[in-house]
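BUG: 3D viewer hangs when loading the predicted structure for this chain

Environment: internal workstation, default settings.
Expected: structure renders.
Actual: progress bar stalls at 90%.

Input used:
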Amino acid sequence: MTKLGIAIDKKRCIGCHACAVACKTQNNVPDDILWNRVLTEGTDVLDGSVGTYPNITKSFRPQACQHCENPACMKVCPVGATYKDDKGRVEIDYDKCIGCRYCMAACPYNARVFNWEVGTRVTGHDYGEAAARPKGVAEKCTLCKERTDQGLEPMCVVCCPAKARVFGDLDDPESEIYRLAHSGNAHQLLAEKGTNPQVYYLN
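Structure tokens produced before the viewer hung:
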């Protein structure tokens, strides 16, 4: 069994948003939508700071779908559009999605977006291999399914200049991500929700 996931080293993250831009480009994400966001912890603004000058701190937390082992979104989907695939990824069958948005309400990570209109792409560029999603469906990070099906890393991992991301199989004891997840220095977001995310954050 394969269980793909990502470990993110928050000490290495520099808040450059390269992961967010790479995600948009690879996955054909419309201009006004983000699958991968870089949050500044302790603030409610983009690239904010905590404290008063000159004593300020800044800590970034990239956040997207957590590809939970026990996903709340899948439990509430009335048509089975949200599912776990054979690589442990949480995916959406856009042909089945009826746009009820139950998955969005159930997700404790605010990781999904909804296509109220047909997405616009100002540049007109044909992004990556991912097909455009239709109007009226939910969408989110797929762990770059088109890439990871070929044994490649997600584009957010490839493009991180600080090497803050590690991708791999959480069920493989020989993998780096397995070592990091079991290092005692890793935590999952909202672990108390019982969703068991496959994204780990290193302190």
